[in-house]
Amino acid sequence: MGEHYFTAEPGASARPHEVVFSIEGHEYDLVAAGGVFSATRLDPGTTVLLKKGPLPAAEFTGNFLDLGCGYGPITMVLATRAPSARVWAVDVNARARELTEENARRLKVADRVRVADPDGVPADVEFTQIWSNPPIRIGKEELHQLLLRWLPRLAPGGTAWLVVAKHKGADSLQQWLGDQGWQAERHASGSGFRVLKVTRPRPA
Question: What pTM value is reported for the model?
């Protein structure tokens, strides 16, 4: 496949790009670079997720996970929306993690953002919400393993918000999640993408 955004140490030029977008009237001015996902614009899937997913209220105080954070657009939106929350930004790509840290400093939210590789999140941390535009291109088996690793870290009653292109298997992924025992439903659609709501059932 060649190098892609889920490469741990990308060799592509790190030439920086400015990415500016607006969510619910708040403008975000972030820096991205070559070798990370959608380095020149807010990609359409993430746009649908942030505009159609129910963003947190300001009083939220739990842990979020931005799974596959890239340069951090989802992290930055969550961190500014919920100033008392902690957002864990996780990515295998070292350059993506560096950019997320830089953007957290630019937006003055670094005190509530924790950037880590997948093995850097303490085992006892649970998440009230997981947000992700998951890396479909790693393949179905690898994607399933990724979700099986992180979805069980939802707190009881916790919710994951996933965006997946319809033509890249959103509906089959929803079915698979249901087969694994998760409550998976289509929350919204737009621009050829599905926003899936995946809930961990509370204990009986």
Answer: 0.91
